[in-house]
Amino acid sequence: MKLSIDPERCQGHGRCVLVSMELFDVDDDGNGVVLIAEPGPEFADDARKAVGSCPEQAISYG
Ligand code: SF4
Hints:
Elements: E1 3-5, H1 15-19, E2 24-26, E3 32-34, H2 44-53, E4 59-61
Antiparallel strand pairs: 1-4, 2-3
Iron/sulfur cluster binds next to helix 1.
């Protein structure tokens, strides 16, 4: 399963980081970045939660 953020959609709300600081960080411009591009199954719940929490539908997991 791959986790990614579409930089065209991301508006830098940072909600993904609040869901998981292991999976996400923000760059110097405040936009979300993925820290683990292919997270293991132990991260599946957090990855799905992040997808649902992003107000811009910028996060893909699948
Ligand atoms: S929650 Fe969505 S819009 Fe906000 S920083 Fe994360 S990916 Fe970007």
